[in-house]
Amino acid sequence: MDSKKFALSTRGLFLQALVLSFAFLSLAQFAETRSTPLNSSEGIVAPPYSSACLRAAVRTPTSACLAANAFTSLQSAFYDPDSNRGWPNTQAWINANTIEVLSNFLEQADSTDWENETATIHSIVDDLFYKSEVGDCRAPVSCESWDDLAWWGLAWLRYYEASGKVHFKYLERSQYIYHYISTHGWVQSCGASYQWGSWSESAYTYQNSIIQALMATFSVRLVHYEGSGFYEQSNLVSHASQLWAWMKQHVIQESNLIFDGLDSWTCKVRPQGGSKVWSYNQGVILEALALLAEHTGDRQYVQDGVDLATAAMSALQNDAENRTLVEKACEPTCNGDQVAFKGILARYLGYFALRDGVPEEVASSIWQFLQIQQKAIWTYARQVDSKGYEIQSLYSMRWDTPGGNLDAGSQTSALDVFTQMMIYDKLQPDSKGSRISKMSLA
């Protein structure tokens, strides 16, 4: 944007004051009606925190404005520059997800409007890269927690891609973490797969869904990168396929929902929580399935992903009319881990919709579903005071009704949805009517 247009002349100051008055008036007017869900024809009022959104005085802002404002509030409310993981009031594995979400924002924010935000992201990630190199596993989590480690490995890989694939250190860190998990977490029980971790008996006797999905996705995401370790490309694909076969045999229900995991002693669903259906378990494996289809040419992987995505969107909505995601296994009392689950599902639904081979009608239904989540988050999760005025751009974990836990995890979850809708907003039809994404996912 041309800075001359905003010169501090008398006329410029008057116009800016008028713009600000209109923005605050719009917020107050919207606050009076926020108890009524938005429909597809209604707008969302931008909270005036990002400089780009403030200058534009947007009545119906883009998803980019919502994401930029949420990021600004994430930093002002929760970021600690002295922490080795950035946002210490939530779980360390969620911090890794925050890096991946910010990487997605970074890649989509290619306008000069977002220079401040992108510069901040680069600075944060570079700082955390060195601070987070802790222990033998080189991550700020327990080296005996395989799923926590995998989130960090995927986060560094995503930032490597989003920042232009020019800083090899991020790829190298990602590959190192993959190798660490592969050589420490594999067990032969129950048909062979990964254990949850090794820090306690409850961890090393639990083969849960999320670590299998993470490592399947991690494997096929690394296929395109030279030196991906210690593993041939064909072996990476084969390993992901093996993990998916294990999941189909052990943790996929007839309803196409994924439950949490098996007890390694009995090879049956663990009585203490193993049968629960968590939203993030339904999402992460979708990326692996789409990539397996691309690498093998087997369309059944895509169909499996379609079945899982369709089942998740149907089963985890509050009702067929409003279609808002609910973490049914814990709401309204979700803990510090669970607050981030829905955003992860939203992210991986978006990734799946972008992949080659996913039917256009399925991709369209996913984007429509994510748009509904964005509007629900703004309507209900946004924090307002007793008069209905916004308290920064902060979002709680409940998307279908006001209330719910609020921390960096719930904020990241909302930001997850906003950044996926940023991607959708940038999709453009090609000559055949297909959509082209500006995403560097391998």
TrEMBL record:
Q: Does the keyword Signal apply?
A: yes
Q: What are the record keywords, sorted?
A: Signal
Output the GO biological process annotations, alphabetical, semicolon-separated.
Answer: carbohydrate metabolic process
SUPFAM superfamilies documented for this protein = Six-hairpin glycosidases
Write down the InterPro entries for this protein, in alphabetical order: 6-hairpin_glycosidase_sf, Glyco_hydro_76, MUG_Protein
Signal peptide positions on this chain: 1-33
Quote any Pfam family the record assigns. Glyco_hydro_76
User: Looking at the keywords, is Signal present?
Assistant: yes
Write down the superkingdom of origin: Eukaryota
Q: Where are the transmembrane segments?
A: none
Q: What is this protein called?
A: Glycoside hydrolase family 76 protein
**From which organism does this entry originate?**
Cymbomonas tetramitiformis
